[in-house]
Amino acid sequence: QSGLTQPPSVSAPPGQKVTISCSGSSSNIGNNYVSWYQQLPGTAPKLLIYENNKRPSGIPDRFSGSKSGTSATLGITGLQTGDEADYYCGTWDSSLSAGVFGGGTKLTVL
Amino acid sequence: EVQLVESGGGLVKPGGSLRLSCAASGFTFSSYTMNWVRQAPGKGLEWVSSISSSSSYIYYADSLKGRFTISRDNAKNSLYLQMNSLRAEDTAVYYCARSPAPGTHFDYWGQGTLVTVSS
User: Fold this and answer.
1) Record: contact B59-A90, CB cut-off 8 A
2) Would the CB atoms of A37 and B106 count as touching at under 8 Å?
3) Which of A100, B21, B87, B96 is the most interior residue, by most CB within 10 Å?
4) A37: contact with B, CB 8 A cutoff
C-alpha cells in the first residue's frame, strides 16, 4: 500500500521556525484534503491541521498547513521544547479507497 | 467531552483471533465514521479500516487481505474489529479514531490497546 513521504527528522532551536514536508501523488494529496497529527512520546496522536490548513479549536496559530499540487507542508513557528514529537501527515487515496499516512517526522528542538 | 476507550487487546498466538472494542461517549456516535489505525512498536501510523455512520461504506487496508472485519453497533455506541489469522506483523497498538465522514481526517483518538502476536 502506497504511503506518503516525509523526512525522518527535522530539528531547530527554540523560538525558530521549522517546516515538515509531505509528498504524495495525484490519487491522494493531489485530490484530497491533507491532515496533520502530533504524537507526543507515549501518547495517542492528536489532530493538528485538517482540510489542508484548518486548525481545530485549541491548536495555537503557531501551527499552520498548506498544500500545493501533490505536496503538503506543516509549519511550526516559535518552537518550544514541548513541540518535540513525531508528526504525521495523512490523507485518503482515491485509487486505493484507503487511508494513507506519511512515515512520520521526528522533531527535535535543540 | 468526546471519549474513545479501546479494549480487548492482549497476547495471542500466531493464527489466533482477537476482537477489539471501542466504547464511545460524549458525541452522537451514529453520526460519525469510525476507524481503526495501528502502530507497530517503534513504527509509524498505519490506517487499518473505516466504517461509515450507518455501516453502508466499509474500507480495509489491502495488506489485511480479508483477515480483519470492522463493525459497529450504534445502539451500544461501540466499534469493533474482529481480527483472525493473526501474524507477528499484526503486533501493534490499535487506535480507535473518529472522522466526520469517510475519507476525512481523524479528529479524536482513543488511547489505544496493545495487541501482541507471539508464540
Assistant:
1) no
2) yes
3) B96
4) yes
Query: How much is the pLDDT for A2?
Result: 53
Residue B3, all three cell numbers? 471519549
Instruction: Note whether A48 and A54 are within 8 A (CB).
Output: no
A101, containing H or E segment: strand A98-101
Expressed in percent and rounded to 5, the helix, strand and coil fractions of chain B are: 10, 50, 40
Q: Assess A96–B contact: CB distance below 8 Å, yes or no.
A: yes
B118 vs B99: CA distance, rounded Å: 32
Which of B60, B61, B110 is opposite residue A44, by nearest beta carbon? B110
Tell me how far apart the alpha carbons of residues A88 and A85 are, in angstroms, rounded to a whole number.
10
Per-residue pLDDT of chain A in tens (110 residues, 90 and over written 9) = 458 999 999 999 999 999 999 999 999 999 999 999 999 999 999 999 999 999 999 999 999 999 999 999 999 999 999 999 999 999 999 999 999 999 999 999 99
Cα–chain center distance at A19: 9
State pLDDT tens for residues B33-69: 999 999 999 999 999 999 999 999 999 999 897 999 9
Distances (CA, A) of B108 to A45, A67, A108, B43, B71: 9, 23, 25, 20, 18
